Amino acid sequence: MGSPSKDMLLDWYRQMALIREFEETCHRLYEEKRITGVYLHLYSGHEASGVGSMAALRKTDHVITAYRDHGIALILGMDPKAVMAEMMGKKTGSSGGKGGSMHLASKEHNFWGGYAIVGGHLPLAAGIALEARYKGKDDVTMTYVGDGATNNGYFHESLNMSAIWDLPVIWIIENNGYGMGTEVERASGQTELHRKAEAYGIKSFGRVDAQNALEVYAVASKAVDYARENGPVVIEHVTYRYRGHGVSDKQYDAREDMSAELKEWMATREPIKILRDCIEAKYGDVGDILAGHEAAAERIVAEAVSFAEASELPSSYEDLLSNTYVNSEFVYKTAQSIGAGID
Amino acid sequence: MAARNVAMREAIRRALREEMHRDENVFVMGEEVAYWQGTHRVTRGFLEEFGERRVRDTPISEMAIGGMAVGAAMAGLRPVAEFMTINFAFLALDAIANHAAKVRYFFDGMFKVPLVYRAASGWGNQATASHSHAPEPIFAHFPGLYVGCPSNSLDAYGMLKASIRDDNPVLFTESIALYPKPSPMPDDLDADYLIPIGKGDIKREGGDVTLVAYARGVDWALQAARALARDGVEADVVDLRWLRPLDMALVYESFKKTNRCVIVEESLPMYNFGGEIAALLQENMFDYMDAPIKRVAAEDVPLPYSKEIELLALPNAQKVVDAVKEIL
């Protein structure tokens, strides 16, 4: 793959503007208690990491991630209405209100989901890649994993398995500096996280400035080609989260050093501004087009909020019990026998 | 109908082999399943017959075995993932309980997870504390998962086939003590002989007391029933076969006839199978209850190495007989 075309860059801008608008709206709605729950991990600040890397995929490739999954879902083209409705636990949500913020998925987009246990999705990624190998297909599985998960047993077992079975997984470590509140330096003996690949004989494509979508794309393109032909690869995306680990934690208010660090990143390494500067340096004034994307993002997210708020909440026992199994009939029977109150 | 005695491991091997021939998507993965021919020899000959693509040795990585089976199943394969023993499945508990069992639910039915985890289970043979568990009830705790625990060869055959063909995740445990044990299988057994998931079985009929058991507990219950019969006491032996879903209708039917019940299991005595069955009986069959419900399980200790105290900790037929006599 060569360098991205003008249309591609403009479309990346559209995606990033949509994610930022969606995430900042989620943040506001959470503060206003219009989105409830405990967990809401926002992708603000991470946009270029997902947008630049997924631009290197084909439609038949697979994507899986952890709980910071809204941005990934939107990049893949999931309907913002269904995603927002899931935030609010509505029946019209992409997971019918059963999953919430951390469990977005879309079969038609080959998006295998967001997962809530740190590292828990990593062997699933290897299993999805195994299906491609088993069937002789050359689809790859792009797998996003946080810096914190690289210290977890799932990470090591899954990378090792991908190596010995030549599974076409692109392991993208999104290193935003912190696993919840613990700095990478306090959590990992090897702080150049991509070098963990060496332990398993996996090719590393090194560290990438993941605030710059073009740099992300350049490396991801090579990595995807390599993985398709050969097997697993590792890339480390150096990025930053603008809204903390999750919206319910307040460490940025409590820790001045983190707050100053955040301001510094926003001032100097803002991914949307970096992309804008790149586009303008290359193609001159495209302000009208970019403003159009921003306005569209506002409109789309506002419509998503209206749709979600107008949607019905799941409320019946059938809503509660359905899809526990492929055939849930016996769940109803059990519920009856323990007096759960269904008719 | 002509039948011959077949060891349970042979029945399991036959079922698995036939299912691999029937469906290209069925494959085996686990520690030592290929070149070593299976720690319990269940997959003996499989590597030669099916090749490395479908008979896959894994490293000692239970978390990955547990989770990869989930991903492969979601993507359309039908993995049969072996935990060498169920003790090692504890390492994969998150993959089993949080992922295999829940993926379908938290994405509201978007994915199927048609996998089988096979695991050898049970106590004895001085395997020592960390290698001596029959913890099926722990896994049966989680909605989204099925748990099957056969007590003889024919059941193992039909239950494993049903598990492999089902679109839900199944934990299938195989009592180590029963692997070599022969029991009759018909000569002209149909390759589509399936035991429906959640269907229990009456292994012996009697009107005086109900013995409820699964897996190796069925052996102890049947031995006890024969001993009790010599004293004129006839026991109904209910083999539940599946811990999830539970065929309580079968237990209730028997209990209405006998009004007395002893629950027999290999597992530990706290928060277990016996507690669950006893609770359901008192909630639903209170009017039929003529005596306290008794439970026979292992002693509440980690299992020791030395033979005599190891046997003291284990349930046996005599303990079942004694429990029955207390409530007659």
Write a brief caption for the model.
Chain A is built from 14 helices and eight strands. Chain A is α/β, with parallel strands linked by helices and 343 residues long. Chain B folds into two domains: 3-186, Thiamin diphosphate (ThDP)-binding fold, Pyr/PP domains (Rossmann fold); 201-327, Rossmann fold.
List the helices and strands and how they pair.
The complex is a heterodimer of chains A (343) and B (328).
Chain A: H1 6-31, H2 47-54, E1 62-65, H3 70-75, H4 80-87, E2 111-114, H5 122-134, E3 141-146, H6 153-164, E4 169-175, E5 178-179, E6 182-183, H7 184-187, E7 203-209, H8 213-229, E8 233-238, H9 251-254, H10 256-268, H11 271-283, H12 287-310, H13 317-321, H14 329-337
Parallel strand pairs in A: 1-2, 1-3, 3-4, 4-8, 7-8
Antiparallel strand pairs in A: 5-6
Helix pairs in contact in A: 1-2, 1-11, 1-12, 2-8, 4-12, 5-6
Chain B: E1 3-7, H1 8-22, E2 26-30, H2 46-50, E3 55-57, H3 62-74, E4 78-83, H4 86-89, H5 93-100, H6 103-106, E5 116-121, H7 136-140, E6 146-148, H8 153-165, E7 170-175, E8 182-186, E9 201-204, E10 209-213, H9 216-230, E11 235-239, E12 242-244, H10 248-258, E13 261-264, H11 273-284, E14 294-296, H12 307-313, H13 317-327
Helix pairs in contact in B: 1-8, 3-5, 9-13, 10-11
